[in-house]
Design goal:
By secondary structure, the chain is an alpha/beta fold. The chain contains 17 helices and 12 strands. The strands form 2 sheets. The protein has a 6-stranded mixed sheet with strand order 4-3-2-1-11-12, with helices on one face. A 6-stranded mixed sheet has the order 5-6-7-8-10-9, covered by helices on one side. Strand 7 (205-210), helix 7 (214-223) and strand 8 (230-233) form a beta-alpha-beta unit. The longest helix is centred in the N-terminal third of the chain and has 33 residues, at 3-35.
Length: 452
């Protein structure tokens, strides 16, 4: 072996040893980090002291706990309550006038509503927007909501609003729930524009909440030109739509309202900051999301959650027995079987394309074995279809753990006691959404359309 080869070999050996030491050190530090106690982190808020700040949550769907894995614990309502208290207290000390509001899709089911509204009262909510799904529980929400303003859709004739005023700055903000008006329905739009016109004459800032999808919101934005400053959208697929003026276009487009998505993650809070305009200028409205993590449980809210799950314990055990029988037989169960407990998820699923997968094939004249294998869970398990409406890609198609007895045992546990909740991975989706059948399928954009 030449001297040059020996030098190269010694260099490689040295490099390998150094790399090994780096990996060993990294592993040691990672292990130490995992064993070390977590330091409570105060959620960050913008440095500017706004005159009015509205904090929004949304999409609770009746879930008081999510699961025990660290990545999901932040969505538990007791932790959101703690984080919300911290950020609102800091903002009040800074001189801001604070409002705490729910953006909708919070109810979930009848049995959880009294407990959820008790949590909201402790957390200081001042107004609740009722989505179309929440409206199914309107009477019960009305009976249990004590000191909270309920915002019902003006497109259906309701004249409800929430107002908040910073008297020192002379700044008044109004919030209204539009519901889900069709931009092409003139009767609905007349109710919307009349309501917003009245508000515009009395308040410097008008904020509207809607439950339309992204495409219809673009049309609604044009119809509400000059009538609203901000439209908040409850659509997980929607990102941010600024007015053309915000994007740097002509001055004539500045009267278009800005559009922003309500929080889709339960661990996030949408902060809408409002500054009064100086010398007659238009007020400034700036929305931004604040993630809440690393905070302890709010003790009063945690007690309410504990009471709820103590009440539910017997039912959870019954759920577990049912699911285990299904998992052991690997048999087909209807969506209504799951929906009897998971009411909010079932109602949301019925609005997706998955729920109409068989009807879609029937319209196209393609009720054949090849297509039904993906479009019908019942056909795949039993070789027949007994129902077409509200049937197709169903619960166990995506939640594959329901067919595994070992994993199904987690199903009847209290969510916070589970070590984890199985996540839906791309591998589950591409069994059907492959290149041949769905050449343009994008997991990142598709999942929010069906998630709950």
């Amino acid at each position: 072996m030449t001297e040059e080869e020996l030098t190269k070999r010694s260099n490689w050996v040295g490099f390998a040893i150094a790399l090994g030491l780096i990996l060993l050190f990294s592993f040691s530090m990672l292990r130490q980090y995992r064993r070390s106690p977590r330091v409570t982190q105060v959620p960050q808020i913008p440095e500017q002291k706004a005159d009015v700040i509205l904090y929004w949550t949304a999409n609770r769907q009746g879930k008081l706990e999510i699961c025990g894995c660290p990545g999901k614990k932040g969505e538990d309502i007791a932790k959101v309550a703690s984080g919300l208290h911290q950020i609102s207290s800091l903002a009040r000390k800074g001189g801001s006038t604070i409002g705490i509001l729910e953006g909708g899709d919070f109810a979930g089911s009848q049995e959880v509503i009294p407990y959820l509204l008790e949590c909201y009262e402790i957390m200081g909510y001042q107004a609740l927007c009722l989505s179309p799904r929440d409206m199914a529980f309107y009477q019960q929400i009305k009976d249990k909501a004590k000191n909270t303003t309920l915002l019902l859709p003006v497109s259906e004739g309701w004249d409800h609003r929430f107002t908040i005023v910073n008297e020192k700055k002379g700044l008044a903000v109004a919030v209204v729930n539009l519901g889900a008006p069709s931009p092409t329905n003139e009767e609905q739009m007349k109710k919307v524009t009349e309501a917003l016109t009245r508000l515009r004459s009395r308040y410097q800032v008008v904020i509207a909440v809607t439950y339309l999808n992204a495409e219809k919101v673009k049309e609604l934005q044009k119809r509400l030109k000059g009538l609203a400053d901000l439209i908040l959208v409850d659509d997980p697929t929607f990102m941010v739509l600024r007015s053309a003026g915000h994007e740097g276009a002509g001055e004539s487009d500045l009267s278009l309202p800005r559009v922003h998505r309500l929080p889709h993650l339960r661990s996030n809070v949408l902060s809408v900051l409002v500054w009064a305009g100086k010398d007659g200028a238009k007020p400034i409205v700036q929305p931004s999301e604040i993630p809440i993590h690393g905070v302890p449980d709010e003790p009063r809210v945690k007690k309410v959650v504990d009471r709820y799950f103590a009440m539910r314990q017997q039912r959870l055990q019954r759920e577990l027995d049912k699911v285990l029988r299904v998992a052991l037989k690997k048999d087909y169960v209807t969506p209504e079987f799951c929906g009897s407990c998971h009411q909010a998820e079932y109602n949301q699923w019925k609005e997706t394309a998955h729920a109409h997968a068989i009807e879609t094939l029937e319209k196209q004249g393609r009720l054949d074995k090849q297509c039904l294998t993906c479009h019908s869970l019942e056909f795949r398990l039993r070789g027949v279809i007994t129902e077409k409406k509200n049937r197709g890609v169903e619960c166990a198609d995506c939640h594959t753990n329901l067919m595994d007895p070992a994993q199904a045992r987690l199903h009847g546990q209290r969510p916070g006691e589970r070590s984890s909740t199985p996540a839906i991975s791309p591998a589950v989706c591409i069994r059907c959404h492959d290149r041949q059948n769905s050449p343009n399928f994008n997991y990142t954009t598709a999942l929010p359309k069906v998630s709950h």
